Amino acid sequence: MLQGSSLACVRGDRRLFKDVNFSLEAGGLMQVRGPNGSGKTSLLRMLCGLSNPALGEISWCGTSIRALGGDYFATMTYMGHLSGTKDDLTVVENLCISSALAGIEVSESQAYEALKHMGLGGRETLPVKVLSQGQRRRVALARLLVCQTKLWILDEPLAALDVSAVKLMQCLLEKHLEQGGMVVMTTHQEIDITAASIIQLQLA
Questions:
Q1: In terms of DSSP bridges, do strands 55-60 and 2-11 run parallel, antiparallel, or are they unpaired?
Q2: What H or E segment, with its residue span, contains residue 16?
Q3: Can you give the pLDDT at residue 190?
Q4: Looking at residue 129, what DSSP letter applies?
Q5: Which distant-in-sequence residues (6+ apart) come within 8 Å of 102 by Cβ?
């Protein structure tokens, strides 16, 4: 279970949100919504342990994520709203290296299979700098196929994706949830996802 209790976020002299509470169970999806500047990305960074809330506590299975440290990070995959790909590396190198940095060893055959699934078959050895923004996003999202973590925290995962890629992501997210995974995501695009439970968390 991922739980947030009385969370508050302050940036400079401005409070972005306060009294945010949620409880997300296995198989559950939480969509974080709100206007630009409401603190959506800030909340996701807190859930990843990249920043601390001004007030409140985030816990995983009843224990503070700050106390769990690496044990928590091993269960979680975070993807920011930027693709984070390296222009001079090939598509397959990007996937293998980004996975390795997250502590996940991916064989070349696994990487090729994941990239093919994401609609990048035949482009594996191209440098990322020749790809479109949507294709770069697919390269980044391919990591979800090989990460084997329970909790996915995704900031605008549908950004720059075309209709077919959005459908692909819908299927990928639903499969993860069906297997008992958990997803926290922000998105400005509508996506119809079937889940055991769906939480709509609105930030002012």
A1: antiparallel
A2: strand 14-24
A3: 80
A4: G
A5: 77, 143, 147
Q: What is the pLDDT of residue 188?
A: 83
| Euclidean distance between CA atoms 70 and 120, whole angstroms | 32
Cα 156 to Cα 1, 51, 84, 116, 188: the distances in Å are 23, 19, 13, 22, 7
Q: Are 108 and 68 in contact (CB under 8 A)?
A: no
CA atoms of 23 and 185, how far apart (whole Å): 14
Q: How many residues does the chain have?
A: 204
Q: Which residues contact 3 (CB under 8 A, 6 or more apart)?
A: 22, 23, 24, 58, 59, 60, 62
Token pair belonging to 106 = 């991916």
Residue carrying structure tokens 């949507």: 134
How far is residue 11's CA from residue 82's CA, in Å, rounded to a whole number? 21
Name the stretches of the chain with pLDDT < 70: none
